Amino acid sequence: MPTKRCMENLFFIALAAVTCISCKSTELVYINVLKPAPVTIPAYVKSPGVVNRTTITPQHKAVDAVDKIFSLEGVQLDREGAQSSVSGLTDELLKNNRFSDVKALGELDLTTNAPGLFSAPLSWETVDKICQEHHVDALFSLELFDTDSKISYAAVPVSLKTPLGNVPGIEHQASMLTTVKTGWRIYDPASRNILDEFPVARDITFSGRGINPAVAAGALINRKEAVKEVSVQAGQSYAMRIIPYQTRVIRDYYVKGTDNFRTARRKAQTGNWDGAAELWKKETTNPNSTVAGRACYNMAIICEINGELDLAIKWSQKAYEQYNNRLALNYIRLLKNRQVGNELLKQQQAE
Question: Which of 62, 79, 199, 317 is the most exposed place for a label (fewest CB within 10 A)?
Fold first, then answer.
């Protein structure tokens, strides 16, 4: 049973926690932000080609065959999976208004000498030749495709129904984890740059059960379609690397300082940010430097919400330089990073 002193300590801890919560001077606001794509495709690229460079060179086929035996892969699984991945990328790029056309060029006798790994990049002479012959101005190349599987067994006691009643028995369970690995490069012959080199890996789990290990494993055989579907998704996922994306960022804003801050808080909670900004602006000239600094900082927040980054930086600079506001300095860095991102967005969205 807790002692009186222990109970008093618990009371003061709880009181301190409540006090900290009630004294918190800021709340969070979530802002939707358009981020630049991880990969920037130059504006002059209008008609890219997609090639499959995953065929193994003859001198390395023996090594690849051994690998497939040990990793439980089917003879055609990698080949069909690679084709599916190229189709997934091509179809997704065709949906992007960024390009006037996207051409699926197939294998074109291109090979790799590093099964399961990235080969050395294609020579620029090879890239130039492909682009000129097929009238494309960049190449998306699938340069790595590999499936690797691991299988495990378990024997589980079960009750088997028989004409003589239930009898104890053993059920064999098999599970297989298949990892589909793809690797892509984007070649820009005009600038002689490899715009991107990126691996994508996805896992699929299969399971089966039966009265013996062979029957349990037999339930795992029909996995080709699942591997092909995941390969399509890997291609589609890679296409997203050239598309700007929406994300949510978190910002603190001040809710305490004066009656105007408390009223502005209620306005902000109902979505009336312009009404809140009117009250914050009144406090930017408050003789109390802490209150004025908070108000200037909040004005920077409302400017970012409205997409006015230059003005947001000016308000946050004033909050830090004139009033030494503790949040403003880091916020200036965030806003300047957003400005850099917006310049990149303009490049990516240029027609």
Answer: 62
The amino acid at residue 216 is A
Instruction: Assign 212 to helix, strand or coil.
Output: coil
The candidate with the shortest Cα–Cα distance to 248, out of 11, 5, 32, is: 32
- Token couple for 281: 């602006």
Give the single-character DSSP code of 27.
E
Cβ atoms 154, 142 nearer than 8 A: no
150 falls in which pLDDT band (50, 70, 90)? confident
Residues ≥6 apart with Cβ < 8 Å to 274: 302
The number of beta carbons lying within 10 Å of the beta carbon of residue 86 is 28
**Encoded amino acid at 313, one letter:** I
Question: Which of 193, 200, 192, 219 lies closest to 208 in space, CA to CA?
Answer: 219
For residue 227, report the phi and psi dihedrals to the nearest 5 degrees.
-65, -40
Torsion sign across C-alpha atoms 198, 203, 204, 206: positive
Q: Is the dihedral of CA 103, 104, 108, 113 positive or negative?
A: positive
What's the rounded mean pLDDT across residues 89-101?
A: 90
| Band (20; pLDDT cuts 50, 70, 90) | very low
Average pLDDT over residues 264-289: 96
Q: Is the model more confident about 11 or about 47?
A: 47
Residue whose token pair is 């699938």 = 142
Say how far apart CA 102 and CA 143 lie, in whole Å: 18
The H or E element that residue 202 is part of is strand 193-210
Distance from C-alpha of 2 to C-alpha of 141, rounded to nearest angstrom: 70
DSSP 8-state class, residue 331:
H
CB burial string 287-312: b at 16+ within 10 A, e below? eeeebbbbbbbbbbbbbbbeeebeeb
Rounded to two decimals, the pTM is 0.73
* Among 24, 16, 66, 19, residue whose Cα is nearest residue 261: 24
Residue 17 has pLDDT above 60, yes or no: no
* 220 Cβ contact list (under 8 Å, min separation 6): 151, 174, 176, 206, 207, 208
